[in-house]
Amino acid sequence: MSAPSLPIDCPTEVGPPATGGAIVFEDVHLAFGDNQLLRGVSFRLPLGETKAIFGVAGSGKSTLLKLALGLFPPDSGRITVLGNEVTQLSEQELFPLRSRLGMVFQESALFDSLTVRENVAYRLTEEHGIYDDEIDRRVRETLRFVELEHTLDLFPSELSGGMRRRVAIARAIITEPECLLYDSPTGGLDPVTSNTIVELIMKQRDVYRTSSLLVTHRLQDAFTMATHEFDIKTNQLRALPRGQYCDAPMSFLILRDGKVTFDGDIRALAHTKDEYIREYIS
Amino acid sequence: MELLSPTEFAKEKVIAVQEYTLLATQSVANLFRKPLYFADMVQQADLIGVGSLPIVVLTGFFTGGVLALQTANTLQRFGSITLIGQLVSTSMVRELGPVLTGLMVAGRNSSGMASELGSMVVTEQIDAMRALGTDPMKKLVTPRVTATVFMLFFLSIISDLVGLAGGLMVAKLFLSLDARQYWSNAWQVLVFQDVFMGLLKPALFGFIIATIGCFYGITARGGTQGVGRATTQAVVAASVLILVTDFFVTKLLISVLSYR
């Protein structure tokens, strides 16, 4: 895999650290049996930023997202999401918090007995009190956002892999969540479909300023996101001038042996001296 | 298959019983917490109740018929062939109606619930549901438990009725008995305790069928093979538990109700 060259020439001063953050992990440990998966993972996702998480298979990337959602608790450490300490909340208390988040699962995890319309409308129908007309309007609008309005009455099994991921994105964003979690949204897809999904993620980042964690194996996707912005007027990606790469609300996190071995922006990534990271991004 | 030490095996079983107890308790407690998924309950009632009607009718009818056939010979020896209506009636209402209906519905619906929920677990749909802010216990388990308890109650009544009709067919066609005499014997022999026992059991069996099916589904692991295993285990566990519960409930009711 080859990443685009990174001629970074933006200012090197690091700004003051933002307080709070959409998601904060503090010294999180997790083991499955004898396998110590996370050994003191700490990082912060500032509001409005997208953080791409890298690491070899089995390094615990997807687990980070599930921990952030509170789908299972860590062995120790603290996880704060949108100001709520997930590690202190009960399952019942987590449901209202989860409704403020959006998650796109690796294999889409669409409800296979529901149509695309019902899948995308799921959160709205669960909220109760929203009229059918309003639900229909918002479903169509969201499916138009992911360019799949024509699939309303199809079942997930009738869609291609890329279409399923886009429906999963539509389901996640229909309630305009404050934070989005993407688990390998482009994994196993052809380059054209991958680019479409990257555009959608960037559209969400740049148009709605949604904070997000993006687990991916594809460095080129993250580099595209760090060097481009979504132009709402042309409805296309626009390359940022070289000096403005650091303006993109995008950062990188690399996991290695259960620890965060890198957490920073594209400039820091390009200038790192760490041999493992240099090899990883080369 | 990996061999477990006796301690590990015992621990595993105790944890399974604990998890099942939690699931069963929550499935009832959720009835008193909002939101209540009434539409899902109706949908499940249709799938479980209406869907099981043909097998319950067929089972009940032929069980009543074969009961009359098998006992006719013995009754004839004692010159009591006219009591065949009483025998079919009490056997069906007290015992065979609820138990056979329970076993049939367990075979059809415990497996269905285990495979449906198990598939949702292995394809991350349950996690997706939790991530979307929905409690799967409320959305999936409670409607199934409520619908099964409710529908098994009525399915057992139908089974009793068609069982009596099966007995009547045998009495009339093969034993040349009077239909009116059969019905009046069958009706008059029933007392409150018979009916109470016959209606309490399906409620308990319905609860067992749904909670066992959902438990094996929700705890399914190991892909499609795991789902298949969960499905088989659900049917076996539900069927055995129905028969065991039937014995103890019968014994208890006989004692409590000063039953003859």
- Could you say how many structural domains of chain B there are in total? 1
| N-end to C-end Cα span of chain A | 8 Å
Average pLDDT reading of chain B: 93
Structural class of chain A: alpha/beta
Give the amount of beta strand of chain B, in percent.
under 5%
The CATH topology label of the domain at 1-89 and 218-282 in chain A is Rossmann fold
| SSE pattern of chain B | HHHHHHHH
The name of the CATH architecture of the domain at 1-89 and 218-282 in chain A is: 3-Layer(aba) Sandwich
What does this structure look like?
Chain A has a domain at 1-89 and 218-282: P-loop containing nucleotide triphosphate hydrolases (Rossmann fold, 3-Layer(aba) Sandwich), CATH 3.40.50.300. In chain A, 42% of the residues are buried. Chain A is α/β, with parallel strands linked by helices and 282 residues long. In chain A, α4 crosses α5. In chain A, strands 6-7-8-3-11-12 form a six-stranded mixed beta sheet, sandwiched between helices. Chain A is 34% helix and 24% strand. In chain A, β9 and β10 form a beta hairpin. In chain B, α1 packs across α5 and α5 crosses α7. In chain B, 84% of the residues lie in helices and 0% in strands. Chain B is mainly alpha-helical and 260 residues long. Chain B has helices spanning 6-29, 38-77, 84-122, 125-131, 136-173, 179-188, 192-218, 223-256. Chain B has one domain (38-256).
